[in-house]
Design brief:
- The chain is α+β, with helices and mostly antiparallel strands and 118 residues long.
- The chain has a domain of 77 residues: Outer Surface Protein A, domain 3.
- Helix content is 39%, strand content 14%.
- The protein has four helices and three strands, in the order H-E-E-E-H-H-H.
- Strands 1-2-3 form a three-stranded antiparallel sheet.
- Helix 3 crosses helix 4.
- The chain is globular and about 40 Å long.
């Protein structure tokens, strides 16, 4: 692993995602559409991303969540980290998260977050 990749992984693992308080959520059977009145473009959330609405509470870091997901599902931590990072990327792009001090994140998708094109 290159140093640049190691730095990227450290940055991703350290992020502590927290959903906005003002989200409007329209839940389907397994998925959802969410948006904030401050940023009204809706974001589609697949079933796993919908599940994370209750998990991204501003307490656990992406690294901790990835470790827990890996343990529960019996997958590698790398695979779990990739999935959690994908979902955080979706949330960031949709402006569904707040910053660590509670201010709504209004910046576009950061360079260190990505949404893989699978």
């Amino acid at each position: 692993m290159t140093q640049e990749m190691a730095d990227y992984v450290s940055t991703v693992k350290a992020e502590v995602p927290q959903v906005r308080d003002d989200l409007v959520i329209d839940r389907g059977a397994n998925d959802a559409v969410a948006w904030s009145p401050a940023h009204v473009d809706p974001t589609y959330l697949d079933p796993v991303a919908t599940l994370m609405l209750d998990v991204f509470d501003g307490v656990a870091s992406v690294g901790v969540l990835a470790n827990e997901v890996a343990d529960v599902l019996g997958i590698s931590e790398t695979m779990a980290l990739d999935q959690i990072a994908r979902i955080v990327g979706i949330y960031r792009k949709g402006r569904l998260l707040v910053s660590p001090d509670g201010d709504p994140l209004v910046e576009p998708l950061d360079a260190h977050w990505y949404v893989p094109d699978w």
